[in-house]
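Figure caption, in words: inputs first, then the predicted bound structure.
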Amino acid sequence: MNKLNAIDQETIKVLNQKKIIQLLYRNKQMTKQDISKELKISIPTVISNVKELIEQGFLDEAGVGESSGGRKPTIVRFLPDSRYSFGVCITKDQVRIILTNLNLEIIADKSLDMPEELDNFNSLVLQIKKEIDHIIDINSIPIDKILGIGFSLPGTVDEKKLLLENAPNLKLKNISFENFQHNFQFPLFTENEANASAYAESFINFNGIISSLVFISITEGIGTGIIIGDNLYKGYNKRAGEFGHMTIVKDGKQCNCGKRGCWELYASKKALVNEYRKKFDDCDKKLNDFLELSKSNLLAKDILDNYLGYLAEGIKNIILMLDPRDVIIGGELSNYKTLIEADLKKKVFQENSFYNQEECKISFSDLEENASILGAALLPMEKLFYLNEKII
Ligand SMILES: [Zn+2]
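Bound structure (zinc ion present):
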């Protein structure tokens, strides 16, 4: 056998194993015969690959199924606790750390307050490491079953270089996670917060339902993650989807990024809260207090209406640029879906000669505050399910 053939054989074997893992991940358990039928690969190939996957701990045999004549078929089962992954989500206010199994079930969940001044990122990483070691310890997780740690970060990220390039809201630039790798016994992964959320939304529907989507994460700023044809689209310089900084008001408010009139200054959660606080001259109330007030108070209602106008303008621009099947809104605002959904859709689709609601679906994330951290925990799992990385 020549060298190229040997590589091809190996690639086919790895690909078949990933297909079997994906199939059983979705279906929990199946007979070897059904796996063979579904994936259109021969029974002997299924048997040899399943044997290897059992040896690696991902599957086990769980009895026998009904026979359609002849020997009863063996049932193979996916084992979600065969591997684990950590997700770490860093925001302006806090660091949240979760441990999940392969089913993305959260086994441990811990939040730390962000220090007032983040002058030493290294000490924050050491604090995260301490928490992770503690979680491993109290849950008795074998180190060799941990796939890695995925970080969700609020800024532009080069995931190949493990580099947080620019996070204006944290006032951080060029933080290399490669420098922190030696602190941990398993690999680190990094991704932008909105990209991680988009990845989680698309993966959780990874049978192909959502293969074209834009996730709009409305927090202190606005981040957007783009999924095109099942892949995360990051662009040539890894900065695609910085829609929070597209100009929505010419010569408008001054932004941290250096530009004026950026979308996030008008349509982020922070923008909405600031507007409420200014107009009501009340700096203590939180977003949920004001949103509750919007149900009955005319001034509060007016502020929300104006805000939704800015949010809708940005969404209209994004739809025109990318033509996504789904636009999914995440962040605290998604908890107020019933209050804002109808008005927002009206503002996006009324007087819109290009799109209607059947052609582009706007919805709110069911993953709620977990979207980005589950996306982060998914990063180390990617290689289990896919042959190629899902980033373009
Ligand atoms: Zn900006």
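The chain is about 40% helix and 20% strand.
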